[in-house]
Design a protein that fits this description.
- This protein is an alpha+beta fold.
- The chain folds into 3 domains: about 200 residues, no CATH class; about 110 residues, no CATH class; about 80 residues, no CATH class.
- The protein has 11 helices and 24 strands.
- The strands form 6 sheets. A 7-stranded mixed β-sheet has the order 4-3-8-11-12-1-13.
- The longest helix is centred in the middle third of the chain and has 17 residues.
- The chain is globular.
Amino acid sequence: MRSPYKPLKSLILLFTAALLLLSCGASAGAEAPADALEKGSTPAASLELETYEPFEGAIYEPTRISVETVRIGLRYGENATDYAEFGCSDETGFALGYFDEDRVFHTEGKTELSWLAVSREEEKIVLTGWGFSRTYDGKRGLAFQALGGGPLAFQGNRYRGAIEVTCGADGGLTVVNVVGLEDYVKGVVPYEMSDGWPYEALRAQAVCARTYVVYNQNKYEEYGFDLTDDTESQVYRGIDLASAETDRAVDSTRGLYVRYRGEICEIYYSAADGGHTEDGINVFGSERPYLAGKTDPFEDAVNYTGRNWAAYRDGEELGYRLSARGFEIGTIVDLQAKYSELGNVIAMTYTDENGQQLTLTEREAYTAIGLNNCHFTVQKEKDVFVFSGSGWGHNCGMSQWGAYAMAELYGYNFEDIIRFYYTGAYVG
């Protein structure tokens, strides 16, 4: 059983951290404002985390995790390709075969070539190399991995595991990276956070990334994989930005997930929340107790991405953007924003020149007009709507820059970070 949670850090530890910051400054290009060091040395009452007695997670039976292999879509749907080239980084050659329904690779042949190309001809996959050409059933697909177990090169990135190619339903080839869970997490952490960030922030990111993929297994089942490789899921580009530090953050948290009453959590995180996270129900329509919005006092200690931003849209552009999303509306002449108690936009009502109104809620309220953060105000200056905000991303769950500040300036560890941003949740 784990010991009770202790939120208050030693003043000595915090004072030491402050002295180090005075001599070194913040890492990863972040610049702390003048008052950041004072905050780091003696945290105010608002920066003290809640105490849980007894440790809440200990009384719940954790659900078992059976996910060992994940499937990540690299090219699919509208982004499918008719032709692709692959390299074997260790030049040992390729094992050729297929994956069964249990995600187990079966070898049917091999080649010592270090380069292969695939193309689509009707419902067939054509594999070519120097001096040979083979045809495969497009529905079952073709899979290959390095004979020596090394990474595979595709579109300028290197990936662990194997590559699977199938004929997509809408034409083109669907390309999927089939990779072990931990290797996948090692390919997310350095692309979601810089490897120069505080170690405890990297560990929090590793736990969140691992939790996200397990919770969302088979989310894109219609395409034949679990998650995409971009911000629609988590940014994943293989191993090229991975470092000893990011790999260590993953290895040190192996088998750990964000849980609530024993269950795997529905995880979200974004770059910065501008001082206030938001309830999951107002962002993704997800009503979870651990996705409760709250005031975030930690970001204020660093100059985070999107600390202050502004965007300008005239009525014609707003109407065009909304129409492009499939809404029937003309030039916008009036715009009313609805705010949550935390000051985040949770709905927008657009009125066009003919008096027709359109109300959008959750993320769509502002992403439909090209904004990516909900912590903003809007004013009309002549014919132009001015959006002024703070934060970067959807504001639900963990703030990555807040995690940076908690670890770097206030001495909190990865479990503290997760318990702050996911109310009532814990690492287990």
